[in-house]
Amino acid sequence: MDRLTAVERALRAATPNALLDIVTAALMEQYGAARVELRLADYGMRSLQAVETVPFSTEPVMIHDSPQGRAFGSQEPYVLPDPDGHAVTVHFPVTIRGDRMGVLSVTMPEDRYAQALIPEMQHICDVLGHEILVAERDTDLYVLARRAARLTLAAEMQWQLLPGRACSRPEFSLGGHLEPAYSILGDNFDWSASAEHLTLTVTNGMGEGIEAALLTNLAVNAMRNARRAGLGLADQACLADQAVYAQYRGAAHVSVLLLRFDLATGEVRAVDAGSPRLWRLRDKQVTSMPFDAQLPLGMFGDTPYTCEEFRVRPGDRLLIGSDGVYDTASAAGEMYGERALARSLASTRLLPPPQVPGAVLRELATYRGQAPLDDDALVVCLDWNGRR
Fold first, then answer.
1. 118-135 vs 3-13: helix axis angle to the nearest 10?
2. Pairing status of strand 197-205 against strand 187-193
3. How far is Cα 48 from Cα 9, in angstroms, rounded to an integer?
4. CB atoms within 10 A of CB 342
């Protein structure tokens, strides 16, 4: 049995809380590593937090302007020789199907380091990422490591509802982010990809705090239930509309944009039921995609919803923003969605989709100036590659 297989088997046999111990022992034994450190990205995607038994024992490192952040951002191993020349540290990205989780840093003596080891060790990081994803069902260790501060209860509910922060397949790549990350209220996004389709929904539940989180949870799970029952996009909206109305009797509603992509053809079916809006970047031109506005979910309980259709082409980039993004005003009173959002989408065109939402939201914070964020802000970015 080769050493790579031995490490994989050891990780798969480990208890959920012992993954870092197992990978550390394996890297020391098989590769001569002197030190191993695992850091996971925090909810705000600003810092990398150490995975450790006692949280917050180790200072975080910022994603911007750090060696670990360089590996995290580029999604490539970053080799950093020690100034004394006796050791080499390699920072490896830990990523699962496009969802960037964190960085594994491995320090080894210079005489044990070889460039040929990099692909093999990166494969171990990929296996580690998969095992962390599975282990999170049974331990809080990795969830706690992602916290730079305490989450509000509403934010806890919203982050647990998300499928992830990014997803990548040959046909598409997408990423999303929410702010304020540690006190998010009613904004959310969801996706599911099958062999033939990608379904993407962006949701905004009205209200504040727990009420907004409960409302969004109900709507998202109602749409998931309908989707998993094999219902079409319009019927998913109808079922969620009925579920929200049955609970709130019209006193609360949920805005949602539902999209269903045919992975083979690029045909898209859309249901616009509220405030989330869509922009398209094609051939360096940014276009707002208008749809026929339909009623938000839960207002009457028997609203008929209809689909519209459009087509995406390879090379298209789509960006979806909540009203907390495009309705944010500058100091001069101009809404971000009028002109600034299009400029931001064009200026970030070279970034991969998982990095675009954070970049747009940082630009939004600068645009807003000193004014506090008085609403959730959500951005989802999708690059369409098409099926080859």
1. 10
2. antiparallel
3. 27
4. 18
Please write down the HEC assignment for all residues of 314-382.
Answer: CCCEEEEECHHHHCCECCCCCECCCCHHHHHHHHCCCCCHHHHHHHHHHHHHHHHCCCCCCCCEEEEEE
**Whose structure tokens read 């600034």?**
340
- Render pLDDT for 2-42 as a digit per residue (tens, 0 to 9): 888 888 899 999 999 999 999 999 999 989 999 999 999 99
- Express each pLDDT in 245-270 by its tens digit: 999 999 999 999 999 999 999 999 99
Mean pLDDT along residues 51-55: 89
Q: How far apart are CA 213 and CA 384, in angstroms?
A: 30
The identity of residue 27, as a single letter, is: L
Distances (CA, A) of 318 to 27, 33, 124, 167: 41, 43, 33, 14
Question: Which residues lie below 8 Å from residue 200, measured CB to CB, with a gap of 6+?
Answer: 174, 189, 190, 191, 258, 259, 260, 261, 320, 380, 382
pTM: 0.94
Side by side, the strands of the sheet bearing 61-62 are: 61-62, 47-50, 35-41, 99-109, 87-96, 78-81
Helix (H) or strand (E) holding 180: none
Q: Which DSSP symbol is given to 295?
A: P
Q: How many other CB atoms are found less than 10 A from the CB of residue 96?
A: 18
pLDDT at 373 over 90: no
Cα distances from 312 to residues 306, 342, 354, in angstroms, run 20, 18, 19
* Tokens coding 114: 């070889």
Query: Six-digit token pair at 49?
Result: 């937090």
At CB < 8 A and 24+ separation, what contacts does 73-78 make? 73/355, 75/100, 75/352, 77/118, 77/121, 77/122
Do the strands 35-41 and 99-109 form a parallel or antiparallel pair, or are they unpaired?
Answer: antiparallel
The tens digit of pLDDT for each residue in 129-184 reads: 999 999 999 999 999 999 999 999 999 999 999 999 999 999 999 999 999 999 99
Locate all alpha helices (DSSP H) within the chain, ordered by sequence. Answer: 3-13, 19-31, 67-74, 118-135, 141-145, 153-161, 209-228, 233-248, 323-326, 340-347, 356-368
What pLDDT does residue 54 have? 86
The partner residues of 200 in beta bridges, in order of sequence, read 191, 259
